[in-house]
């Protein structure tokens, strides 16, 4: 492990700083949009701009990296991400913010692709799992710390936007100082989406629904909390608990999914998540709106925080269970290609998540946020129960649950030692 940090500290440091900025940025914009009285549908559309950029970048950046190299792409996109957040501070307008969010999404996926490609080059079959563990740990801790930085200054001021830009700029320094020659970019194979559906109808449908769920959670939770008159401290605490819960619950849920029919775990998690959505709605009654956790421990609000934390623990691990479930029906050499296809399906759902959820919130009020999440969890649970009557469970010893961050790219999936990734050039020599 010491050698791993010695050879990859710059990548981990740069990525860690970047992910802290990433964790702060989206939630900062959500809170500021409420303060600026943006229409909730305009806010949802603006948030979807990020996922549109992310989706477009995932398909365009690999070719760009192959043409001009890792360092130029990383420097260009980190600068673009730093610039786009300043645009938000200068022009407070939903249309301008939507364009800026698109640029942010396009830039961020480019940076992730470069970092994960580089980490793959640094890893070999003996260290691949350790690299993935460190990468995942940095991702979740960075996102959690980013949410706490909401308390740095009030969202109405320009200082939080400057802080995001500074962090993105600082993230450039350690990675650009890396002496080692950049790796050669490897293109990821693909599986057609219709073929992926034939391989696993439930896995494909569930991943599409997860796109709607995850994108809504990570873009509109801050909007929901701000509309419920939560303080900045309460909003940051809620987002922190959601992130940490999603990380911690992956291991126990993954443990049980490796020992029984994964569909049972997926259906159970979805239906329990739907239950916690309902309890969150009940506990977030009107009495919440003028009671502050920082002042007095109102029992309804405490229960609300508990329910949302447990909800995140059930909902967020579904992403990685889904990947492992689809891998149950294919050979090891197709794991990464299947992951790439599932990421495309996830991205399509993520694009529509904030928009559709904002429509629910516009029609039903703030409670529409949890109604939206509840509906999609019921969809997953119901379709899973149906599919269990259509296909018997098949055990694939090559497929195991591996905790993964939500934002990982197909290149990052190669860090999973169970994918049978080829030995690195260093190991071959």
Tell me briefly what this model is.
The protein has 429 residues and is mainly α.
Question: What would you say this structure looks like, in words?
Answer:
The structure is a single chain. The chain is mostly helical. The protein has one domain (2-419): MFS general substrate transporter like domains (Growth Hormone, Chain: A), CATH 1.20.1250. It is 74% helix and 0% strand. The protein has 17 helices and no strands. The chain has helices at residues 2-35, 40-68, 70-90, 94-122, 128-148, 159-176, 193-199, 201-227, 232-248, 250-257, 262-283, 299-315, 318-327, 335-364, 368-388, 410-413, 425-428. Residues 286-297 and 422-429 have low confidence and may be disordered.
Write the element-wise H/E pattern from the N-terminal end onward.
HHHHHHHHHHHHHHHHH
Beta-strand portion reads: under 5%
Instruction: Outline the biggest β-sheet.
Output: none
**CATH H level, superfamily name:** MFS general substrate transporter like domains
- The tally of helices reads 17
Query: Strand tally, please?
Result: 0
- Report the span from N to C terminus: 21 Å
Name the overall outline: globular
> In CATH's first tier, which class applies?
Mainly Alpha
Helix content: over 70%
On the 0 to 100 scale, the average pLDDT is 83
The number of domains is: 1
Class based on secondary structure composition and strand pairing: mainly alpha
- Low-pLDDT stretches are 286-297, 422-429
